[in-house]
Every structure is written in structure tokens, then in C-alpha cells.
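Example record

One chain of 88 residues, shown exactly as stored in the release files.
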Amino acid sequence: MDDEEIDIKKSFAGIAFVIFMCGVWGVALVFCIALPPLYFIDWILGSELVLSMQNILMTGTVSSRWFKLWLCGIPLTLIWLKSKNWKV
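Predicted C-alpha cells for this chain:
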């Protein structure tokens, strides 16, 4: 089974899983992967990268905030699915 590709377009559960994982990877990217280096750069250089990121992502309605976080997770989800040998 390691060499086989899994086609996720054939099942509703596969599509729902990809949508869910985009959200999980988006939250992980924004709050766990991107923020610590940005805080460190802000601390050293005195720039306002974290403030800029918060202004971009956390403005608007609640649903638009979640949608922006979900969009941030799409690239990492595609990389993760390719590493799992899933056909998207």
C-alpha cells in the first residue's frame, strides 16, 4: 500500500478531511510556525511584522478571519498530502 496513490476525490470523507486539514495547518502555520520567528525578528530589529500579520489576518468579520486562516493552510496541506502519496 505504500506505493499506491490514494485518490481523495472519490469520496466525500476524503474531501472533508482535506478541508479540515487546511484549517488545522493554517492555524498551525500562523500561530506555531510563523509567529515565533517573527517575534524574534521584531525583538532584534524593532520592526512590526507581528502587528502587520495580525492586522492582515485578524481584521474583518469572524467568518472572514477563519477563511483567511484556512487559506494559509492550503500550501502546507498540499505538501503534506504529496508526502503521504495522496493524489489531489
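Notes: The chain has one domain: 11-83.
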